[in-house]
Amino acid sequence: MTGSFDVTRYSRAAGEICRAGQFLYQRGWSPATSSNYSSRVSDRHVAITVSGRRKGQLTGADIMVVDLDGSPVQSDCRPSAETLLHTVIYRDRPDIGAVLHTHSVKATVLSRLVAEGEAVVLEDYELQKAFAGVDTHEGRVTVPVFANTQDMTSLAADTSRWLADNPGQPGYLIRGHGLYTWGRDMPECLRHVEAFEFLFECELETMRVRG
Ligand SMILES: CSC[C@@H](O)[C@@H](O)C(=O)COP(=O)(O)O
Ligand SMILES: [Zn+2]
């Protein structure tokens, strides 16, 4: 799958990704070359970060287009090593317009404290309402923790199965690695990152206080 995409939409997406990188780097959630970001540019294409670039200093040269199979379109660069974790979300969820992956200390530490096969369950927090479609603190946001692996095909398949069973959930963790979250557009997706970071900090602080 390759094909064409709208250049104006691509330019807008690339700008949004670069600005997201500056924000996420400044908050300490995307240190060094960690993290990857993407934004949809058509029903079959996404703009995504080139692999190995420092995310706090992104320019247009650090963004490229891939199709929904993860193949580069009109670029000789290597897309993010985790491209398949992005494209599977765009493929399964046509309503999704942006995906962000971050490597914060809190997401990393919390993911290591959750027992294997368990999830982080966020409940009774008012801030859950920052997630799309949530209008009360009374529901549950369940954040699964997938085992870390370098096998992106297998991890993409696992996340796809989970997404099919949990269509309303806004993100997942990878153990000792970081957060994946998505939104209908970049502002919503950034809001989700911020909400997760606040809630992860609350969970860690609660564990610390309880001892
Ligand atoms: C700097 S280690 C982090 C990487 O292994 C990876 O997890 C990551 O988030 C960035 O990979 P990238 O290929 O640049 O998109
Ligand atoms: Zn990563």
TrEMBL record:
Keywords: Amino-acid biosynthesis, Lyase, Metal-binding, Methionine biosynthesis, Zinc. Its EC number is 4.2.1.109. The keyword Lyase applies. It catalyses: 5-(methylsulfanyl)-D-ribulose 1-phosphate = 5-methylsulfanyl-2,3-dioxopentyl phosphate + H2O. InterPro entries: Aldolase_class_II_sugar_metab (IPR050197), Aldolase_II/adducin_N (IPR001303), Aldolase_II/adducin_N_sf (IPR036409), MethylthioRu-1-P_deHdtase_MtnB (IPR017714). Belongs to the aldolase class II family. MtnB subfamily. This is Methylthioribulose-1-phosphate dehydratase. It comes from Marinobacter zhanjiangensis. The gene is mtnB.
